[in-house]
From TrEMBL:
Ranges of residues in domain NAD(P)-binding: 8-137
Stated name of the protein: SDR family oxidoreductase
Membrane-spanning intervals of the chain: none
Top-level lineage group: Bacteria
Amino acid sequence: MRPILVTGGTGTLGRAVVHRLLSRGCPVRVLSRQAHTPGEHGWAVGDLVTGRGVEAALSGAGTVVHCATTNGKRDVAATRRLVEAAGGTGVSHLLYVSIVGVDRVPLGYYRAKAECERLVVESGLGWTVLRATQFHDLVLRVLEGLSKAPVLVVPRGVAFQPVDVRDVAERVAELAEAGPAGRAGDFGGPEVRPVEALAAEFLRARGRRRPVLRAPVPGGTARALRAGGNLVQPGGLVSAGGLVPARPAGRITFAEFLAERFPA
């Protein structure tokens, strides 16, 4: 079995993907800009933005799981370098992890992700694109920042479907082993929750007392979020208790994630 090269293997998702692949008995090689001591898996030193060491890292690999991410043009440049290098090294499957709503929410970061998807689709390689909703870790970081103020202000009428990175990693590992699947079904968390409910849950877990204020937010991004552009199951009413999607993919809820992160 040829090794699976994981880009971004030291990041939030990448670490979990590497763990799941190893638990399945897959040989794994992780691309990093810095040298590491070999352990359970191999390492390859390379830089996707400059292209340094990328062809050598791809040598002998059958599948590439592209979890690496940066900002805007650098993200697109890195993906272009990877696609160009992979085309001449015998890679048979390129799996790209993207975000639900990149074609519906007009954020610059999302536009870059959509462009990366296009590069993968047009690469000439066997490909899979998996879009996932926002990770619990991201929602937590945002709420941590917002809660530093005396009042925690959230956008009115917006809901999220946060997903645990371990659930996403399990799905990525399945797809990596299965072979090219094209556009895979979007992957979201087990619950759609209004942002104020997530904020209240966060405050309870952290033992903090803050009023939660819902404020109207103008602009196209806010309109897209209110319309459910960031959800696997867009549209419909979301109650304070949360709406369970018809086909939830993730298993770990935001409350369960918080309970693990901040045990009583």
